[in-house]
Every structure is written in C-alpha cells, then in structure tokens.
Amino acid sequence: SFRQASNKQHKLFYKINPNYKVMDISTDNVCIAACQTCDKHSSSLYAKIVGEKKLISNQGIKVVDQYLDENVLRLDLSGGEPLYSKSYIRILDTMPDTVRWFKINTNGSHYRDFTPQLEKGKIIELMLSFDGVGKTFEYLRWPLKWDQVTANFDKWLEVRDKYPTRLKLSINYVVSALNIATIDEIRDWTAEKNVALTYQLLNRVDVLDIRYRNRLTERAINVKYDFPIAWDKNNDEELGKWLEYNDKIRNIKYTDYLF
Fold first, then answer.
1. Which long-range CB contacts under 8 A does 222-229 form with residues at least 24 apart?
2. Which tens digit of pLDDT belongs to each residue from 32-43?
C-alpha cells in the first residue's frame, strides 16, 4: 500500500540522514502540449489557445533556491513539462549530489539522457503520461506525436537495460470517456515494452467521467475495467458541446482520432 511504501521509504531515508527532506516541486506551467484534460495552470500552450496569459509562475523556483540543500534526499518534479521548462532543467543541472532519488512526471515530448546521474548511483523514477496509443494519444495529448514520444521512450528503455535497478519507467493512464474504449491498446503496449502501467480515474473534467452514458462510453460497455462504465445518466448533449469547443480551439475533429 501507499502507507507501507511511505513508511519503508522513511526508515531508509532516516537511516541515511535524520534531517532528510523530500521536495515535491512545481515551478511553472511551461509545456508544449495542450492536453484535452489539462488547464491553463498546468500548460502554457493551453493558456495560449484559450486566450489567457501564457506563462504562470508560482514562485516555486524561489522555494527551490531556498530549500534545495544537502538534506534533500528525494526530489519530485511535475509540471508544466519538467524536461522542457528551463526552470526544471536548471534544477536537474544544479541539484546537490546528496539528492539520491528523484521522480519526474513527463509527457515524453523531450528526451534527456540521465546516464550521468545514473552513473553516480542516483535512482530515477520516470513516469510518462500516455493516455492512449497512436491516434488516441495524439488527440488527448495534442499536438504531440505518438512516433516522437515512443522514439524517446525507446531511448529510455535502452538506458534502463544498462541500469535496471536505477532507472524505473512506468506509464500513467488517465481514464476518461475519451480513451476507455481503447484501454486494451495501452495494456498490450506496456506489456510488450515490459513497463508498469497505472490507472488514474479522471475526476476534474466531470463531463468526461466514464459513469455517464454517451457516444463514447457506449463503445466501451464490454471493456474489462475495475469500475462500471456508462451506468449513470445520458450526458451526450453536454459531451457534444465539450467536444465541439475543445476541437474548435485546437482546429481538429475528434472523429479523426477516436473512431
């Protein structure tokens, strides 16, 4: 369980340094993707296409400068996009040698070679946000291209083969009405790549909740999943309006990707 894993980590960290710190950092929203389930606070591109202020800074970099010291054993980075934002790259390039573990959530759009850190004995957890395979991915993670992110992923696989106990790769799949019908594709893909797959049930865009019956979830009635699908009211009208708006601001059509 999460609690047991946290307790185990605490004992390990405390043994190394009784004054240890774990930092979970989000410095800005700089990102080249405008994912369907994202918002302006997490993506500068999303902010741009909806006509909002592009860059949102949360002063996180000042906190990093103040508290990232020799007592920090673990560093967790989320975005924006940590492998694209200059703020995050600066953190990765200047972190103290005492940082032994770090976890990075990434959309896979930018490759970084972690070999120098791995050779120093660092343990890196790289969690990639892949909400589908092929066209499904390209719709949900617009305007990223599946071929590009998988090319980057394959490079990380090669590095993992060299450092199997230090580089840990996993895929996080946010389940929604947009991708529940094709969930078996990501299961097959991760099995082929021999990487862990975790699911996260979307909860911040209610119209896309898989409990509603609509043109998308009805295609997934027989999909094997831990939660019931399409059991609640029909929200096809609301979904249609959501799809129309989100396709319009991106100048795309969901039918070119999801059917």
1. 223/180, 223/181, 223/183, 223/184, 224/184, 225/175, 225/180, 225/183, 226/199, 227/201, 229/180
2. 999 999 998 889
Contact 142, 36 (CB under 8 A): yes
Q: What SS3 class is residue 148?
A: helix
What does the alpha-carbon distance between residue 44 and residue 47 come to, in Å, rounded to a whole number?
Answer: 5
Average pLDDT over residues 19-29: 87
Out of 23-27, 51-55, 76-80, 229-233, the most confident range is: 229-233
C-alpha closest to that of 140 among 241, 223, 218, 247: 247
Alpha-carbon Rg for the chain in angstroms: 20
Q: Which two tokens stand for residue 195?
A: 């990487």
Report how far residue 107's alpha carbon sits from residue 212's, in angstroms, rounded to the nearest whole number. Answer: 27
Closest CA to 61 of 85, 35, 28, 37: 28
pLDDT band at 156 (very low <50, low <70, confident <90, very high): very high
List, in sequence order, every residue forming a beta bridge with 24; answer none if it has no partner. 76
d(CA 183, CA 137): 11
Q: Which residue has the tokens 């999909």?
A: 223
36-53 per-residue burial string, b: 16 or more CB within 10 A, e: under 16: bbbebebbbbbbebeeee
Taking alpha carbons only, the member of 152, 162, 44 closest to residue 106 is 152
